[in-house]
Design brief:
alpha+beta, TIM Barrel, Jelly Rolls, eight-stranded parallel β-barrel, 16 helices, binds 2-acetamido-2-deoxy-beta-D-glucopyranose, apoplast, hydrolase, carbohydrate binding, lectin
Length: about 900
């Protein structure tokens, strides 16, 4: 632990190594320090800092994944980890706190400290976060007289109790900076400015109350509010969005903080997959520091997974990948991660100048080109940012007597006001191709061993599935019958997605005759419904509808006599955004009517309805009680017709190795799945619209979440992450609840790995120097002496470069999937690369004539490489392997 802490500081610009290692007492990760701020930056232990923060939400990963994610954030150049606090997970039942497993917040904060990073803890406790009910426990809505997020006594009492609880836990564990812990900053509320006007004067009072309540808890570090232009003097108002350059806090005593830089976006069931190009993201970040920003957090640096029923919505998918630099499974998403790492290195080189200048000197370089120059009191310290905000044209500008070429929509960073070490639009980082490996899904008892090594495009299936039917309608002792329609959440308390509404209608001979004579079909009309309803008549599924407060009209076939109308109402993630969440509710609104009867419509709204919360299988915990013989599972045969509302189970062996594991549910409809009792989330094969995707994504110009989408015409999500720590070597229990009737025989277990890495680096690309020291910087000689155009390749931890599949120094064409040589090609390319890289986890090579010879003088050459990765025999954890760079 001590070594890691020491190393952590080594990577940061401020070399406080001595302070850290000497006299470290147990539980202290830093020498205690205070955090304050001025108009320019946060002041950490007396020094202004330019900080890069990485958003990671602890419950969206497992504790076993946390060290790797934090380590990869640090290697990517982060100084700070930022997370929300998830009230619904920490207090599932009022007064009963949970800090275990994925909710072990103390452990998470300690890991951040051990890694030598700071922490920004956003308590909220309203967090939005695309999390179920915005992070509020659903019991909160049952507190008499409560109105959320306003000047309302019952709400304020609950909010204060929870926020105080978190602050107390952190203080008791000595996790604040002044105690030697990593927490440097907190947050109260979240994006309240967006909805404040809905609450009138009471909203304004609430903001003041929340600020004073938070500060009054004595946490001893600054608090922020995100998007709160009327934040009181004792709270920093911070920006969120795709761009925050030019943001001004509401006082000139506060620094410019960007709590959420949206580096991607979330996805709904049936939606496309959004991507934010890294060139634009880097542009936004560089512009932010260029124009006076001092703290920027990637929302998200790792997005992860909405396990269980934690995803918000309505209708947000189980994956929360977010197109983040670290993907849902914990693998680097390249070139995003690598390009940002280079950007962060460049910004760190500017830190001495950025923190010593009170403000930037602004210089116009053209109609859409500008420079911001930061000089210290000591004029030998000077850093500059040159921006070309023209979306279309490259521009050559003159700056302090030198000429610089700026691609469209880009920023060049000049840590010494002379040498451009980084341009946001020139990506030198590697890209990677992820492949999914199919694994046979069979238990150790019946698998044929040769299958285990096969890589195939065909799903490998388990032959031994068992099935159990979920009852249609009421099944339990706790059903009840009342007159009228109850609101869904009032009944379920969100203990389950599912609620049965059951009533009975009488159809006379005359009705039947009337329908025949007039060729009329009766129909069931629901005025308004969310999120999904499945309509059963006499236990037969006759239709389903989905949407957010939509009208439903469903033709029904009724028999003479009594007919059972059974509506299976479902939520798919509770609302997480907007004013008056407590009133939002779910299920049905308005009237439910049966139309087309002889004597007119029948209003069922005030009929007698029987209510059944949840599924029998959920109640019986089918997903955990594998050995319960009283459950009547039967073997599933191939000729059985897939049936609605069915449970399925099978067993499978873990795929070998360490690669992330997913279950492919593409053959199924909608439902939920569990592995060894862990709820891996809701699944749904809703397909994204066919159109609206872009073949080529142009990074130039302002980004929005609709700009660069993929996955058109395909199901939004088919792979569901099963963290390795939830698996045992063999005989893992997979339980699936399927609503509509998919085929479990095609469900398969797969691994995700980075099979190939590519790089495409120009001989005029100079990555920022990684081993930089302050003194050599002030000498101002480092760039010319030491910097060389370098290509770096790296396989994931535990992998080595097995072979070079393509290499060309010259004018190669195409991209990673399809490189080809151009007119100019150095014939030695492949052999030089093979020698430098094969058998290694990572390799570096200078991109220049001195290495490859000059295949075409007076032409700017590039080196394109594609290398295949394969698992190495020995593998070390991510951050012990770092010291070489
Ligand atoms: C932090 O500030 C407090 C209050 O000003 C002071 O008492 C304390 O000594 C400071 N701690 C450190 C580590 O500087
Ligand atoms: C500026 O800083 C450098 C390096 O620390 C030092 O050598 C030089 O004397 C300083 N100049 C002034 C005017 O303070
Ligand atoms: C839900 O229950 C509460 C209290 O039991 C009641 O005040 C409220 O009106 C109910 N909501 C709906 C929409 O029925
Ligand atoms: C179910 O299948 C298993 C093998 O997968 C077999 O041992 C068992 O006898 C079968 N049970 C029935 C009732 O067919």
């Amino acid at each position: 632990m001590q070594n890691k802490t020491l190393f952590g500081f080594g990577l940061q610009w401020l070399t406080k190594v001595l302070i850290v290692t000497v006299g470290m007492v147990s539980g202290e990760y830093f020498k205690p320090f205070n955090v304050s701020y001025d108009h320019r930056a946060l002041i950490i232990d007396g020094q202004r800092r330019m900080l890069i923060s990485a958003g990671i939400h602890y419950p969206r990963a497992t504790p076993e994944m946390w060290p790797d994610l934090i380590g990869k954030s640090k290697e990517g150049g982060a100084d700070v980890i930022q997370t929300y606090v998830f009230w619904s997970g920490h207090e599932p039942v009022r007064g009963q706190y949970n800090f275990q497993g994925r909710y072990d917040l103390v452990k998470f904060v300690k890991l951040v400290g051990e890694t030598g990073l700071y922490l920004h803890l956003r308590i909220g406790p309203y967090v939005c976060a695309e999390w179920n009910f915005g992070g509020f426990p659903v019991w909160l809505r049952d507190i008499p007289g409560i109105v959320f997020r306003t000047d309302n006594e019952p709400f304020k009492e609950e909010m204060k109790r929870f926020v105080k609880k978190i602050v107390d836990v952190m203080r008791d564990e000595s996790l604040f900076s002044w105690q030697g812990g990593p927490i440097i900053m907190l947050q109260i509320e979240n994006e309240y400015g967006n909805i404040e006007s809905s609450y009138g004067q009471k909203g304004k009072e609430y903001v003041k109350w929340a600020a004073n309540m938070a500060v009054g808890l004595g946490a001893g570090v600054p608090w922020v509010m995100c998007r709160q232009t009327d934040a009181p003097e004792n709270i920093i108002d911070a920006c969120n969005g795709y761009y925050c350059d030019g943001f001004k806090p509401n006082s000139n005593k506060k620094p410019v903080l960007w709590t959420e830089n949206w580096d991607g976006w979330y996805t709904t069931w049936g939606g496309r997959l959004p991507h934010r190009p890294v060139e634009d993201l880097a542009f936004a970040v560089a512009r932010f520091y260029q124009r006076g920003g001092s703290f920027q957090n990637y929302y998200m640096f790792f997005g992860g997974t909405n396990f269980g029923r934690t995803s918000g919505g309505p209708n947000y998918v189980t994956s929360y990948d977010y197109d983040a630099p670290i993907d849902e499974y914990g693998l680097l998403s390249q070139p995003k991660w690598g390009h940002l790492k280079d950007l962060h290195a460049a910004i760190k080189l500017c830190e001495p100048a950025l923190v010593s200048a009170e403000s930037a000197q602004y210089i116009t370089l053209g109609s859409m080109q500008e420079a911001h120059v930061y000089r210290g009191g000591n004029t030998s310290i000077c850093s500059a940012f040159l921006a070309n905000i023209d979306e279309h044209k490259t521009s050559t500008v003159q700056f302090l007597g030198r000429s610089y070429t700026l691609p469209p929509w880009s920023v060049s960073i000049l840590p010494d006001c002379k040498n451009a070490v980084f341009n946001t639009a020139k990506v030198g980082a590697q890209t990677s191709i992820k492949l999914v490996d199919f694994e046979p899904m069979s238990s150790s008892k019946s698998s044929s061993p040769e299958h285990l090594m096969i890589r195939t495009e065909l799903p490998l299936v388990s032959e031994s599935w068992m099935t159990l039917k979920e009852p249609i309608g009421a099944w339990g002792d706790d059903t009840f019958t009342v007159q009228g329609l109850l609101e869904h959440l009032n009944v379920t308390k969100d203990q389950s997605d599912y609620l049965w509404y059951i009533t009975r209608v009488y159809v006379s001979d005359e009705d039947i005759a009337y329908w025949k004579e007039n060729a009329v079909t009766p129909s069931l009309k629901i005025d308004s419904m969310r999120d999904v309803v499945r309509i059963f008549i006499n236990e037969q599924l006759i239709g389903s509808e989905r949407g957010h407060w939509v009208k439903v009209v469903q033709d029904v076939e009724l028999k003479q006599g009594y007919n059972d109308v059974m509506l299976l109402s479902q939520t798919v993630g509770l609302q997480n955004y907007g004013a008056f969440l407590e009133k939002d509710g779910a299920g049905f609104k308005g009237q439910i009517t049966l139309t087309g009867l002889k004597n007119g419509d029948v209003d069922l709204t005030h009929s007698t309805w029987t209510y059944q919360v949840g599924l029998k299988g959920e109640f019986q915990k089918l997903y955990a009680n594998d050995d319960d013989e009283s459950l009547s599972w039967t073997n599933l045969t191939h000729d059985e017709v897939p049936s609605v509302l069915s449970w399925y189970k099978t067993h499978f062996d873990s795929p070998g190795g360490k690669d992330p594991v997913v279950v492919d549910m593409s053959s199924m409809g909608k439902g939920q799945a569990w592995v060894n009792g862990h709820h891996i989330g809701r699944y749904w094969t809703l397909v994204a619209p066919k159109d609206g995707c872009q073949e080529n994504c142009n990074y130039r110009g302002a980004y929005n979440s609709g700009k660069c989408q993929t996955n058109c015409g395909k199901p939004t999500q088919i792979w569901y992450h099963v963290p390795r720590s939830w698996l045992q070597p063999s005989d893992n229990l997979l339980v699936v609840f399927e609503e509509t009737g998919g085929s479990p025989f095609e469900v398969s277990v797969k691994t995700v790995s980075v099979e190939a890495v590519c790089a495409h680096v120009s001989e005029d690309y100079y990555p920022p120097v990684k081993t930089w020291s302050q003194s050599s910087y002030i000498n101002g000689k480092l760039f010319t002496d030491q910097r060389k155009p370098v290509m770096e390749l790296q396989c994931e931890d535990g992998y080595t470069i097995a072979s070079i599949e393509f290499a060309s120094y010259g004018t190669p064409q195409g991209s990673c999937q399809s490189f080809s040589t151009g007119n100019c090609h150095a014939p030695t390319s492949s052999s030089i690369l093979s020698k430098a890289c094969e058998g290694r986890n990572r390799c570096k090579i200078e991109v220049s004539n001195s290495v490859f010879g000059d295949p075409c003088p007076r032409t700017v050459k590039t080196l394109a490489v594609k290398a295949r990765c394969k698992p190495s025999l020995s593998s070390s954890s991510w951050y012990t392997g770092l010291s070489e760079i």
